[in-house]
């Protein structure tokens, strides 16, 4: 229920609002200007031959490469492949991580038993599992999915577990004094109070999911943006490498903003 | 003889940690009868909060017995309102926990909130309320299940002085007019004198009742009025000496 703002402000406050609006506009125009300047310098320096466009590519060559991928009909195939692996891997990692964190919160004994294992798995560079993953999962999408999940799941678990454990002791005391069961503690307090931590975990895991899927595609793959990057590097087509990287930037940013949007929907109005 | 709502008989409690054991209470005996407002004061770290946890049944005594008649409601130093719930939903929380969220109970809790000036804030979130209003909401939440005994753990100590006097006045008024039995834990001597019918003084750890006084201000129950009365400073002096003696 949003009421229309009909308050009448003083001249000084109107001035303040105007100044604030101008400030926001300035920041945005500088952001866009900076991007245009960098792209322009990049383009100019390759056009004038200051640097070799073969080695550093250029905005116009990237645009041409993307256009030709589109004409060949493979652009959306590669994007779709990576996007699918990333999103599904992200969803599985988040769901499993959340579930494991819940289980570890529930039983202190299980938590103590598993703690050293989690610490070690967290510290292990997941890329070291590459050869194992190829042997176990073959060279298809499932190998890449596995990589995406394993990169994200530990982070999701540790992030949520620490949030669950840090639940306000006094609020727990309050609920216990009302006679709350452990399940009620969980549903009435622990889960809702950890919502901000859940959102920040999603933000971290967006990055993790892209790391996982692209890393997976480096190891095994016949398609996807990571595959384009590796292939482009091998045949020395840096335009292709740059184009795929550019598309990755756009997709990762888009996914991050979706999470920010979700945050606005979920935690509006209720923050302290 | 009035009905005893809470009876501690020779209660001891030992805390166990990896480093050793601590005696938190030993030979602790007292009672609270129906409709009475009892304040407990003691030096800091003497186990006042432990006493409330025992009374609420959250801790079991190592020896001795604790009898409690009827249900109890616990009120803490901070309001502990849930920020993701509106004031109305916060007030219904104990009803949900105890599976008593009937239409009748909801209406009763709601009526209490309206009666004590929270009517306009039912749909607000805690962050939109002042500290005093939040503590008042916390009291209404405690009263939502109509508990027989209120356990108050320094419920005013997190408020600034001005708000504190006002909220104390408010809370005393609400508790008296609802005819509730209350056990208040505080380190503030003047707060105890201004509120209670009876004051218990605890020793340093292990906690035990060293002195007990029935306060009679000629039937005056209002904290502010009591503070202005001539007997007030006399009681303060006595309790201060006993607390430090």
Explain this structure.
The complex is a heterodimer of chains A (272) and B (245). In chain A, 82% of the residues lie in helices and 0% in strands. In chain A, helix 4 packs parallel to helix 7 (141-165), helix 10 (195-219) runs parallel beside helix 11 and helix 11 (225-234) packs antiparallel against helix 12. Chain A folds into 2 domains: 11-51; 61-267, MetI-like (MetI-like fold), CATH 1.10.3720. The longest helix of chain A is centred in the N-terminal third of the chain and has 37 residues, at 11-47. Chain A has 272 residues and is an all-alpha fold. Chain B is of the alpha/beta class and 245 residues long. Chain B is 37% helix and 27% strand. In chain B, strand 8 and strand 9 form a beta hairpin. In chain B, helix 2 (87-97) runs parallel beside helix 4 and helix 4 runs parallel beside helix 5 (161-177). The two termini of chain B are 33 Å apart. Chain A binds chain B through residues 168, 170-171, 173-180, 184, 188-189, 192-193, 195, 269-272, and chain B through 53, 56, 58, 72-74, 76-78, 80, 82-84, 93-94, 96-98, 125-127, 145, 151.
């Amino acid at each position: 229920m949003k009421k229309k703002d009909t308050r009448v402000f003083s001249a000084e406050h109107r001035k303040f609002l105007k100044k604030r609006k101008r400030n926001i506009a300035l920041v945005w125009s500088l952001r866009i200007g900076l991007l245009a300047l960098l792209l322009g310098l990049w383009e100019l320096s390759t056009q004038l031959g200051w640097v070799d466009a073969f080695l550093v590519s250029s905005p116009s060559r990237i645009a041409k490469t993307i256009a030709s991928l589109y004409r060949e009909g493979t652009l959306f195939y590669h994007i779709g492949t990576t996007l699918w692996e990333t999103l599904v891997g992200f969803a599985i990692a988040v769901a499993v991580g959340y579930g494991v964190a819940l289980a570890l919160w529930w039983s202190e004994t299980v938590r103590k038993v598993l703690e050293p294992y989690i610490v070690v798995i967290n510290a292990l560079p997941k890329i070291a599992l590459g050869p194992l993953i190829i042997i176990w999962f073959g060279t298809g999408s499932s190998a890449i999915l596995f990589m995406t999940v394993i990169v994200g799941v530990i982070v999701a678990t540790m992030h949520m577990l620490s949030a669950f454990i840090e639940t306000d002791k006094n609020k727990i005391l309050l609920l216990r004094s009302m006679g709350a069961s452990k399940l009620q503690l969980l549903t009435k307090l622990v889960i809702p109070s950890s919502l901000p931590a859940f959102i920040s975990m999603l933000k971290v895991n967006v990055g993790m999911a892209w790391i996982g899927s692209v890393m997976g595609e480096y190891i095994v793959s016949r398609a996807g943006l990571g595959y384009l990057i590796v292939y482009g590097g091998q045949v020395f087509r840096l335009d292709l490498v740059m184009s795929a990287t550019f598309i990755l930037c756009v997709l990762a940013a888009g996914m991050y903003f979706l999470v920010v949007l979700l945050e606005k929907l979920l935690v509006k109005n209720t923050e302290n | 003889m009035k009905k005893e709502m809470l009876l501690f008989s020779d209660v001891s409690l030992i805390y166990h940690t990896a480093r050793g054991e601590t005696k938190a209470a030993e030979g602790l005996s007292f009672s609270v009868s129906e409709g009475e407002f009892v304040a407990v004061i003691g030096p800091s770290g003497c186990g006042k909060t432990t006493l409330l946890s025992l009374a609420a049944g959250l801790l079991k005594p190592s020896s001795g017995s604790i009898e409690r008649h009827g249900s109890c409601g616990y009120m803490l130093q901070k309001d502990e309102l849930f920020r993701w719930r509106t004031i109305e939903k916060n007030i219904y929380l104990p009803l949900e926990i105890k599976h008593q969220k009937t239409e009748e109970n909801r209406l009763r809790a709601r009526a209490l909130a309206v009666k004590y000036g929270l009517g306009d804030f039912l749909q607000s979130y805690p962050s939109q309320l002042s500290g005093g209003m939040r503590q008042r909401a916390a009291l209404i939440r405690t009263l939502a299940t109509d508990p027989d005994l209120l356990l108050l753990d320094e419920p005013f100590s997190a408020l600034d002085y001005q708000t504190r006097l006002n909220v104390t006045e408010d809370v005393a008024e609400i508790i008296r007019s609802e005819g509730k039995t209350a056990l208040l834990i505080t380190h503030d001597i003047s707060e105890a004198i201004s509120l209670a019918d009876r004051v218990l003084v605890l020793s340093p750890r292990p906690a035990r009742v060293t002195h007990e006084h029935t306060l009679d201000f000629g039937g005056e129950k209002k904290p502010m009025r009591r503070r202005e009365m001539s007997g007030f400073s006399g009681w303060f002096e006595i309790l201060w000496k006993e607390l430090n003696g």
